[in-house]
Amino acid sequence: MGRRRDSTKFKEFNGILYGKNYDPLGKQWLLFIPKHLEGILKSLHDAPIASHLGFAKTYDRIRRKVFWPGLYRSVRRYVSHCRECQRRKSPPQRPPGLLRPILPAEIPFAKIGIDLLERFPLTTQGNRWIIVCTDYLTRFTVTKALRSGEAVEIAKFLVEGVILKH
């Protein structure tokens, strides 16, 4: 039988050191190999089958198999400095803003909505775009085919087709 030495955080059995696992669903003692920590990180994060899964999954995968003090900090540092993860990671996106109701206008054409529909097949008149202007109060809609979606053509439609007529 092997020699045993107990402490609160570590246990040695047959010359192999184990660390206490505080996860109630996991093994009670996990292997502790201080000389191979970097290799373990590489094999459980960088290997082709590891897939560079990010901090949370890498940490969870390692903490179930081995123990070392400062594991959380080590994995966090390692993953945050991984070039492959930084290259693949999508940029952070801001959450969508709060939706607010659009209150109806008091008089027709005081509030309008405009949509520009693009790249339709070329018509015989040379048009590819359609502009749609809708009054929020009456739902009255004005449309026109346009040659381009440029600001000058849109402004001309708004002035001549909407503002001066309504």
The helix/strand series, from N terminus to C terminus, equals EEEEHHHHEEEH
Mean pLDDT: 85
Tally of contiguous helical segments: 5
Principal-axis shape equals: elongated
Spatial order of the strands in the main sheet?
Answer: 1-2-3-4
Proper CATH architecture of the largest domain: Orthogonal Bundle
| Unreliable stretches | none
The percent range for strand residues is 15-25%
Describe this structure in words.
By secondary structure, the chain is an alpha+beta fold. The chain folds into two domains: 6-88, Endonuclease III, domain 1, CATH 1.10.340; 112-162, 2-Layer Sandwich (Nucleotidyltransferase, domain 5), CATH 3.30.420.10. Helices cover 28% and strands 20% of the residues. It contains five helices and seven strands; from the N terminus they run ββββααααβββα. The strands form two sheets. Strands 1-2-3-4 form a four-stranded antiparallel sheet, with no helix packed on it. A three-stranded antiparallel sheet has the order 5-6-7, covered by helices on one side. The longest helix has 13 residues, at 151-163. The mean pLDDT is 85.
Q: What's this, in brief?
A:
By secondary structure, the chain is α+β, with helices and mostly antiparallel strands. It contains 5 helices and 7 strands. Strands 1-2-3-4 form a 4-stranded antiparallel β-sheet, with no helix packed on it. The chain has a 3-stranded antiparallel β-sheet with strand order 5-6-7, with helices on one face.
